[in-house]
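User: Hey, quick favor. My workstation is busy. Could you predict this chain's structure for me?
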Amino acid sequence: MTEADVNLKAYPLVDTSLTKKLLDLIQQSRNYKQLRKGANGVTKPLNRGISEFIVMAADAESLEIILHLPLLCKDKNVPYVFLHSKQALGWACGVSRPVITCSVTIKKGSQLK
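Assistant: No problem, here it is.
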């Protein structure tokens, strides 16, 4: 995917050097059971105030489905970023299907830093 293929509304877009670190962090949060995926699954912990950060896919077919999340993140002071590929995000989340958004949640006593 080139920069021209990405929707201009998908900002800030993570660069390639940070992508691998971000995907590794998502895999670790899945192992610690601190991961929520899907638009509805991310909105609930964000409204409850237990989201650490949000990752969204920039190549979602209908980006408008998840464009309410950056506004919510700004209201709740939760960092968010767009990733190039929804398929890579799905693999990091541990499913074979593409995932358009995921959230790493807070858990007391967790070793995930």
